[in-house]
Amino acid sequence: MAEATASLSSAAQPAAPSFGDRMFQALTSRLVIIVPYLWLLLFFLIPFVIVFRISLSQTAIAMPPYTPVFSLQDGLAAFFDQLRELNFDNYVWLTEDPLYFNAYVSSVWIAAVSTFFALLVGYPVAYGMARAPAAWRPTLLMLVILPFWTSFLIRVYAWMGILKPEGLLNQLLLSLNVIDTPLLIMNTHTAIFIGIVYSYLPFMILPLYSALEKMDYSLIEAAQDLGCTPISAFWKITFPLSLPGVIAGCMLVFIPAVGEFVIPDLLGGSQTLMIGKTLWNEFFANRDWPVSSAVAVILLLLLIVPIMIFQFAQARAQEQGR
Amino acid sequence: MSTWTRFNIVSVVLGFAFLYLPIVLLIIYSFNDSKLVTVWGGFSTRWYGELFRNQGLMDAAWVTLRVGFISATVATVLGTLAALALTRYTRFRGRVLFSGMVFAPLVMPEVITGLSLLLLFVAVGLDRGFFTVTLAHITFTMCFVAVVVQARLMSFDRSLEEAAMDLGAPPVKTFFQVTLPVILPAIISGWMLAFTLSLDDLVIASFASGPGATTLPMKIYSQVRLGVTPEINAACTLMIAVVAAGVLIASVVNKRREVQRQRDEQAALRLG
Fold first, then answer.
1. pTM for the full model?
2. Which one of B107, B108, B247 makes the best mutation probe of the A interface by having the most chain A beta carbons within 10 Å?
3. What value does the mean pLDDT of chain A take?
4. Which end of chain B, N or C, is surrounded by fewer C-beta atoms within 10 Å?
C-alpha cells in the first residue's frame, strides 16, 4: 500500500527520481520487513526447533550434555539412519513419571484459579475506572501501569515479608485479636494465588478497562428504563459487551501464569509443583537438558490453544483499529 | 456525564490499595534499623550504607544497567521496524508468521524463551556472558516495543505523509521528517518499557547468562531465596526510586510537549 502511494506520488512529481533513488527506496522498504523478520527467525523460531531437536536426543555426560541428532554433517544416508534411531525416551519418561503429569495438571489448575480471582478483583476496579469522571481517567490509568514498571521480582519479594508466619499480616491480625495462632499462608497454594493475582492484575485491568471505556452507557439506561434491575442489566449488557476485554485479560494472565517460575519458587515453597519450576530444576539442578527440552515442548503444546486465542483476539483488534 | 458512585470509589480505592500496599510496606521497612526485617527497630539508613559497600551487588547493578541500555536501544530500532512492517505492509510473504512471532513472545512463558535461547547459543558455540544476555533481552523486549509503537501508528493520520510526498519528499525523508516526530513519544515509551523489562528480568537472564555476567535480579534472587533481608529491601527501594523517577520525568516531558503542541496549533490557527 505504501509502495503504491510512493509510486503514485513520485509520478506526480515534476522531476522523476533517479534510478539510484528508486533502488534505495525499494531497498529500505524491504529492509523494514527483512531486518526484524530475520532477527525473530534466528532468535525466536530457530531456538524452538533446536529445543525440539534436543528433546529427542539422549542425555550424555558431556558438554553440551546430550548426544547430537539430525546433524547433516555425515551426509543424507547417515541422516536417515539417525531418523530411524530417533529417541522418544524423554517423552516416554515424562509419561511414566507421575511427577511431570502432576506438575502439568497443578500448573493449569493454579493458573486457572488465579485467573478467575484476578478477573474477580480486576473487573470492579476496571469498571470503577471506566465510569470515573473523564478528567480522572488518565491518572487512574497511570496508577495501574505504574506497579508494572517496578520489578516483578521485587513485587513477589514484598509479599514474602507480608505472608510469612512472623510477617506483617500475621502481626496485624494477632495484634487486632482476629486470630490466636499465626496463619500459615506462606508456602501454600494460597500464597501462589495471591502472588499471581497481585503480579498480573494490571494485565487483567487494562484490557477490561479499554473494553468498558468504549461502551455506550446509554444502553444500560435504556435497559433500566425498560425495567431491568441494575444487576440483570449488568449481566445482559455490560458483561457481554466487555467480553473481548475479559478474554484478552484472562489470556494475558493465564498463559504466563502456567509457566510461572518466580512466584511458585519464592512463595510456594518446596512442596508446590509447577511446571516452570520443574523445568528450571531439571535444567539447573539435574542438568538434564533433553528432559527439560521435552518438558518445554509439552508445555508449549499445552499453551498453543490459549496462545492462538490470544493471537486471534489481537488480530481482530488490529483489524478493527484500522 | 460520569460521576463517582460509592461502588466505583470503593472498588477503585481497594484495588489500588492492593496494588500499592506491599510496595509501600517494603519501602518503609527498608528504613528499619532492626536486622529482623519484620520488627520495627526505629528509623535508619544504615542498610543503604551497607548496600553501597556490597561490591557484588554494585557490580551486578552495573552489568544490569549496561545490558538494559544496549538491549533497549537495539530493541527499540528493531521493534519500531517491526511495527512499521506490520502496519504499513499488509501483504508480504509470511506476514502471518511474522505477526505471530511478534505477538507470541509477549505471552510466552519465560522459562521456554530462556531455555530455547540458551540451547541456540550452545548450538552455535557462543560463550555465554554479557553478549548473550544482551541478545536475549533484545529479542524479548523488541516485541513489546513493536506493540507500543504499532498502537501509535494505527491511529496515525496517513494523509500527513501523503501530503509530504505529494509535495515531493521522498519516502525516507517523509519518514524522518513527518512520521518519526509524530510517533516519537511512543518510541520513547517503548524504549523505557524495554529498559525496565531488561532491568527486571530474572528467568531469561539466568538461562542466557554465564560466569562474570550476573545481573542484579539474579543476585537479588540468590539472596532472597535465603529469606528477607533489610539490605535487599534497600536495594529494591532504590530500584523502585530509579524507575519512578524515570516514569515521572517522562510524563512531565510528555505533558509539556502536549501543552506546547496545543499552543503551536492555536498559534497556527490564529495565523491562518
1. 0.82
2. B107
3. 81
4. C
Q: What is the pLDDT of residue A8?
A: 43
The chain A residue lying nearest B15, using CA atoms, is A125
Mean pLDDT of B5-13: 87
B10-15: Cβ within 8 A, 24+ apart: B10/A128, B11/A124, B11/A125, B11/A127, B11/A128, B12/A125, B12/A128, B12/A129, B12/A132, B12/A140, B14/A125, B15/A121, B15/A122, B15/A124, B15/A125, B15/A128, B15/A201, B15/A205
Secondary structure (DSSP) of B117-149: HHHHHHHTTPPPSHHHHHHHHHHHHHHHHHHHH
Give how many domains chain A has, as a whole number.
1
- Is B38 in Cβ contact with A166 (below 8 Å)? yes
Nearest residue in chain B measured CA to CA from A37:
B98
Q: Determine phi and psi for A154, rounding to 5 degrees.
A: -65, -40
**pLDDT (tens digit, 9 = 90+) per residue, B234-250?**
888 888 888 788 777 87
A252 lies in some domain: yes
The CATH number covering residue A106 comes to 1.10.3720.10
Kindly state the average pLDDT of the residues A46-72. 71
Summarised one tens digit per residue, pLDDT across range A163-218 is: 887 788 888 888 888 788 888 888 888 999 999 999 999 999 999 998 898 888 88
Give A189's contacts (C-beta < 8 A, 6+ positions apart): A110, A268, A272
Residue numbers in A near B228 (CB within 8 A): 157, 160-161, 164
What pLDDT is recorded for position A9? Answer: 44
B102, closest residue in chain A (CA to CA): A40
Number of domains in chain B: 2
Q: Is residue A246 part of a domain?
A: yes
Instruction: Give me the pLDDT at residue A31, please.
Output: 83
Q: CA dihedral in degrees (B231, B234, B240, B245; nearest 10)?
A: -140
